[in-house]
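Title: Prediction job returns without error message
Component: structure pipeline
Severity: low
Priority: P3
Assignee: unassigned

Description:
Job completed but the reporter wants confirmation the result is attached to the right record. Sequence as submitted:
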Amino acid sequence: MTTRSGRWPGTLVVLVPDANRRNREGFFQNCFSDELGKFKLGGIPPGEYILFAWSSSNGTSYRNPDWLTQYETRGSVVRVSEGTHLTVQLRTIKPTDSSQ
């Protein structure tokens, strides 16, 4: 999966599995975007995910379901199947942004 996370270099990009698989560590992936705001994730197990881009690192707060709830609608839903190559345009979430 490759994408652009707006114009924010160093953006924390996080792939969060659907609610039924969030208790399994191996389904989460993260990386930081490069100087052009691009990033690449690979080796993703098939399934449905939400892809987020944060302008600053929140550590691993995204693994906390209560914390993640405030941002749930700000991510992009993606479906990954075997051999899928996706290009996604993300809107970067700033630390003060939330859906509440």
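Comment from assignee: result matches the submitted record. The two ends are 29 Å apart (CA to CA).
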